[in-house]
Amino acid sequence: MTSVIPVTSQNKDFEALKHTDDHGVEFWTARELMGVLGYMYWQNFEDVVKKAQITCMKSGQNVQNHFSDVTKMVIIGSSTARRVKDWKIDRYACYLIAQNGDPKKPQIARAQTYFAIQTRKQEVFEQLAEDSKRIFIRHEVTQHNKKLFQTAKSAGVTQFGKFNDAGYRGLYGIPLSEIERKKGIKKGELLDRAGATELAANLFRITQTDDKLQKDNVHGNPQASQVHNMIGKKVRQTIKDIGGTLPERLPPEKHIKELEKEQRKIAKPIEIE
């Protein structure tokens, strides 16, 4: 059963207090959030923020990634301004603050629900974006692989197994059968179990080999396989040069068909009873 998050005045306050920096990243400030959470005195609220930071640290997170120390000018007395301490906090930090707040305060109870749901929604959308990227690249690999094999056929290639393996040997440093054994995956599953980074490396290998075969008018099994292997090696060397993880060391991901099925479920609205 699903029902949308109720739009309360407090929820509107949370969104009204939200800021966006020059990079499009959303944030709140602790002093602005204090009143909405039912706190009148900074000293009391500061204790809650510090407890939230401890929780953040214990969870293995870098506290500074979620709580940034800042200062702001406030007016006190008769138009006298002074600089006071504050924190620039993200949505996850807001969630932790709510979790460490006084549970007797109704504002805290509502905030716990609100930020828990919103934080989860953000996590889901981020995962959805990452999964969408992987699915997109996998489809690109499929299309360009078809084109490569058509080009190879036109170049006189008849031993497609050897031609294909030559490219994998270049990129991975080992034959396809050894890649599958090393990753613990079934035969023929490599590209369906590859993550976005690994797929991108293979896509570059495929498109560059296709281009090279056509430009150099390559013909015959040995020559085409040699080109495919050479391109694979160059992509591998580029990964080394930039300090990336070599493809054979990347862990296998969930099968692309399972991912597509899950993505359709994840895309459903996140709601609360």
From TrEMBL:
It holds the Pfam family Bro-N. Residues 18-115 form the Bro-N domain. It comes from the Bacteria. NCBIfam families: PRK11525.1. This is DNA-damage-inducible protein, part of SOS response. It comes from Candidatus Amesbacteria bacterium GW2011_GWA2_42_12.
